[in-house]
Amino acid sequence: MSTTSIPDPSTRYRRTAQRGINSEMISWMFMRASGLLLVILVFGHLFVNLWLGQGVQAIDFAFVGGKWSSPFWQVWDLLMLWLGLIHGGNGVRTIINDYARSDRLRLVLKGLLYFAVIVTIILGTLVIFTFDACPAGAEPSLLPSFCEG
Question: What mean pLDDT comes out for the span 55-63?
Answer without folding.
Answer: 81
